[in-house]
Amino acid sequence: MPNPHIIIAGAGIGGLALALTLHQLGVPCTVFESVRTLKPLGVGINIQPNAIRELYDLGITEADMDAVGLPAREWVLVGQEGQEIYAEPRGTEAGYLWPQYAAHRGKLHMMLYRKLTECAGPEAVQLGAKVTGYIIDRDGTVSAKVSYADGGEELHTGTLLIGADGIHSAVRAQMHPTQPPIRWGGVMMWRGTSRAKPFRGGSSFIGLGTHRQRLVIYPISQPDAEGYADINWIAEVTYDDPKKRKTGWYEPAKLSDFIHHFDGWTYDWLDVPALLGVADVIYENPMIDRDPVDTWVDGPVALMGDAAHAMYPTGSNGASQAIMDARTIGACILAHGVTSSALAAYDTQLCAPISQLILRNREAGPFGLLNMVNDRCGGKFNNIDDVVTEPERAAFMARYKAAAGFAMEQLNASSPTISLGSKLL
Asked: Which keywords are on file for this protein (predicted)?
């Protein structure tokens, strides 16, 4: 091809972050997305400081982020009787140079889409167009097979193809045709939002319960004049012998499907049944992932985001890692050009360590402290220091942050992934 052009399969958070990165670098790209209309789907997610730095470097402002969420200032684990197990500040409250944001996933997604179409034009994202496979051409380019919602099919040739098409990725299926099916370990999640007054400090991420039954709650909007905010919650139950395998995502659910698991979860600071009972919307999600693969690259084709490393959401870093993937690909393209060598460098840098993170999240990620407490005392205690010492708790969390790439000292001291003003073309 006379001029480089990158094809991106999927207009999720990762795909849009990559397209924004390529536009910033001056590299033409086209995003193909299977849905006819992008809508603000989903509920709450957390964006870690390392990914917020990348969004800021893309020109996303604090005001942009405040419009879709709010800074998270505290991370807390609470035992099944309501007592605190561990608490730490987060974001700038902890000393990071960048905040951590709790955001509405759909609003964040639509903000990135709007930013891309404003700077690159509406033609940058082709809706109703699904990449179903690829052909590596003799000249080293790649042709994406695209099926359209109206029934048509076409080949689109580019210099590189990036599969950002999620856990059900067609690009990954071709790259790894013998991969095992999607893995469900027996944990079912019910996600929703409720209008309520925030707990503790007003911007706290709270994990409550045990490894068998757990509730995660945090606000994803600033409080209104009466003190009410949108509270994101995730109710989780582990089944030892699940009757059926689940691989669906964001299926509508009813409160009666799961509320009985949280009977009696009432404390002086939180009434769980009451919070869940005023939900605006409820979805059922199995906690699913995919086994790691040994490479995310096939010549001029690479995987990113959930297509590369779908992982349990126990570390609140799935979307953050997709953003980091996008920026790493951009940095490798700056170093190696729009070439297969750039994708190979990206693979070398991220595939092995992030594969380890997938496995770590299967072990409950940072919520593993709840498992530790449960194993040692059945979840009941008077003084947490008698069960898990403070140094032991701090060391556990430090190991996870280092593995996930947002250890504070390392992040604060690191150079930008892509220097301001960098251009390839």
From this structure: Monooxygenase, Oxidoreductase
Mean pLDDT, to the nearest integer, of 71-91?
Answer: 90
Dihedral angle computed from the Cα positions of residues 194, 200, 205 and 210, in that order, rounded to the nearest 10 degrees: -90
Q: What distance in Å separates the CA atoms of residue 341 and residue 173, rounded to the nearest whole number?
A: 22
The secondary structure of residue 4, as a DSSP letter, is -
- Any long-range contacts for 132-140 (C-beta under 8 Å, 24+ apart)? 132/170, 133/170, 133/171, 133/174, 134/161, 134/171, 134/174, 134/301, 136/298, 136/299, 136/300, 136/301, 139/1, 140/299, 140/300, 140/340
The runs of H, that is alpha helices, within 13-140 are 13-25, 49-57, 62-66, 105-120
As beta bridge partners, residue 6 has 29, 160
Q: What are the beta bridge partners of residue 194?
A: 231, 279
Range of the domain at 359: 6-70+93-181+294-364+404-413
Two structure tokens written together for 180: 């095992």
Contacts of 43 (CB under 8 A, 6+ apart): 104, 105, 106, 191, 192, 193, 220, 232, 281, 283
What pTM, to 2 d.p., does this model score? 0.93
**CA-derived radius of gyration, the chain:** 22
Boundary of a domain, candidates 289, 305, 320: 289
Whether 421 maps to a domain, the answer reads no
CB 373 within 8 A of CB 85: yes
Instruction: Report how far residue 288's alpha carbon sits from residue 311's, in angstroms, rounded to the nearest whole number.
Output: 7
Model confidence over 30-58: pLDDT tens digits? 999 999 999 988 889 999 999 999 999 99
Question: Is residue 260 in some structural domain?
Answer: yes
Whether 244 has a pLDDT exceeding 70, the answer reads no
- For 405, residues 6+ apart whose C-beta sits below 8 A from its C-beta are 50, 321, 324, 411
Type of residue numbered 298: D
